[in-house]
Protein: Cytochrome c oxidase subunit 3
Organism: Phagocata gracilis
Amino acid sequence: MALVYFSENNNIPGPSIFEEPKSFVPLPINFWPILLSINILTWILSFLLFIHFFEIPDIYDYLIISTIINSFFWIYEILSGYSSGIYCNETIFRCRLAIIFFIISEILLFFSFFWAWFHFLFTPSELFGNRWPPHLIQQFVINPFGIPLLNTVVLILSGFSLSFANQSLLKQKRVKFIWGTAFTLYLGIYFIWNQLIEFQLSACSINTTVYNSIFYILVGFHGFHVFIGMCLISLNYFRGLYLNDLNGKNNLSLIGAIWYWHFVDGIWILLYLTVYISGCHKDCNSSLLR
């Protein structure tokens, strides 16, 4: 439960987090995060079911609709309170802190997958010929200088375009902000499209070897996080295009989207260097250079 305080005029937030609050107003309990957490847990269980049995649960469509609805109403309630000016500086600081903790939790998630990758990289099993990638699939390893390198350039450019959009918003240049976010979304769509092409051209599946399992989980989860980042950027794009309620002060949602997108960029660079580069050798599949 978050707390906000007001000055003597109830319509004016307290002037500073360093001043003594004069009265506290508890915000109502929000159940949307709990429902969203249940949805995410069900997503994970469904993913495990798909890996082991290659069966998509019957509730898959329900999960998509429920996740979209829960996310929309949760974000709507947060932004409604933020735009109305009822949040004091301390509450805004805690919202930013919550975003940071969320990104840290995502870093720990990827850390577990990278741990598995480095474990087999430095201590390869005899079952794989004491080599990583396993000897039998080395000719099918994806060439890092084809689509992966192109996607690396695309994500780096998207980080610059999103930063350009943020600077345009701070300078109150609304048109440039809209174009910057739109170009970032285009680059994100192009990245996911290239990723799908890469998966289609791959000769191995997620259950071929442990190498392919870790590879597809790492790259697939990153692609899913790119999609989440695009949803956050789309929210700010439509706020700037139709609602016109974004400005240099009322930009909490944009800050969260920027931090998250730079996190996605950083994970991909690490993924490219460790998974694609370290897993490649002289017999890499050159067909992906096209």
